[in-house]
Amino acid sequence: MKKYTIATLGSHSALQILKGAKDEGFETLLITTSDRESLYQRFPFIDEIIIIKNFQEFPSLEKKLLKKNCIIIPHGSFVAYLGLEGNKKIHIPYFGNKNVLDWESNRMKQHQWLEEALINVPEQYHNLNEVEFPVILKLYGATGGKGYLYVKDRKDLKKSIQQLTKKNEKFIIQKYIIGVPMYLQFFYSPLNNEVELIGIDRRYETNVDSIGRLPLTHQRGLTIEPSFVVVGNGPLMLRESMLPEAYSMAEKTVAASKKLIDKKGLYGPFCLETIITPDQKFYVIEISTRIVAGTFLFQHGSPYTWLMYDEHMSMGRRIAREIKLAIKQQKLDVVTD
């Protein structure tokens, strides 16, 4: 494995990606900015750190990274900093299908994808007269919940739409589902055609989580606008009787991607962001098609990975294990784009 170097940007999930790569015998490389260098220097599993002025300079490193036989592992910051087209122009072997990004970044296409998979999704409204409250307005490309607007009535809806329209923001109007948020972290292997449940988390969002801790009598009269910005994550477990449906949703999501996107479809890590209602019904509110930050909780694995592997298996290590198997089977082209 020392012939190859696993590389990523110093942000989001870089630590577990590179730790997992080192555990599987790869050389590791991090590209980051000077203000983050001191953080990453603390960790001995990072073999090399390349400093750039900003992440937008990443394309200038491509020749250097190709000489090092790098394989790029993308995460949420890749699209945030390099943009959709910037990701598509990366010529270094890239773990994942870049064509999936078009479907993830477009909320209408995301909805179409999940409906094609026959998965329960919240209703999206196109006719304002048909809106049933409460709803949530979601921006295209909103990161970590930033930009989500909770709307409780028609007056509030009109105000929120005007606010976003002035900023030329694209958005969708989605039914707000009342229930328990659970973010199901999966990995699909194109080498063995199997879906694995890696872990489950919930996200702590400001300030909706803090408002929810107040008694109703104290919430009345508050003028605080709900904020869904994610600041942390916590682990969860799902009732065993509900696991069959969780796996089924993931498998149907992968199968639909091969029909809608291309033959490769979605592979590697992905997350179904769900709300579970009191009648134990899943609603998938979003899909993330790369490693999500909540997987960091399971550095030593989760209850689900222990059942499968009986060894420490983080999402970062599972990615590296897949690349390792692909190299051994001479199928690196199957898992990279």
Describe the protein in words.
The chain has 337 residues and is of the alpha+beta class. The protein has 3 domains: 5-94, Rossmann fold (3-Layer(aba) Sandwich); 104-119 and 178-222 and 230-313, D-amino Acid Aminotransferase, Chain A, domain 1 (2-Layer Sandwich), CATH 3.30.470; 124-175, Dna Ligase, domain 1 (2-Layer Sandwich), CATH 3.30.1490. 35% of the residues lie in helices and 25% in strands. It is built from 13 helices and 13 strands. A 5-stranded antiparallel sheet has the order 11-10-9-12-13. Strands 3-2-1-4 form a 4-stranded parallel sheet. Helix 1 (14-23) packs across helix 12. The longest helix is centred in the C-terminal third of the chain and has 18 residues, at 243-260. It is globular and about 60 Å long.
Q: What is the name of the CATH class of the largest domain?
A: Alpha Beta
Q: Mind summarizing the main beta sheet?
A: 5 strands, antiparallel
Secondary structure class reads alpha+beta
CATH topology of the largest domain: D-amino Acid Aminotransferase, Chain A, domain 1
Whole-number total of structural domains: 3
Number of strands: 13
Given as residue ranges, the uncertain stretches (5+ residues, pLDDT < 50) are none
Key descriptive features of the protein:
337 residues; alpha+beta; Rossmann fold; D-amino Acid Aminotransferase, Chain A, domain 1; Dna Ligase, domain 1; 5-stranded antiparallel β-sheet; 4-stranded parallel β-sheet; 13 helices; globular
Provide a compact summary of the structure.
This protein has 337 residues and is an alpha+beta fold.
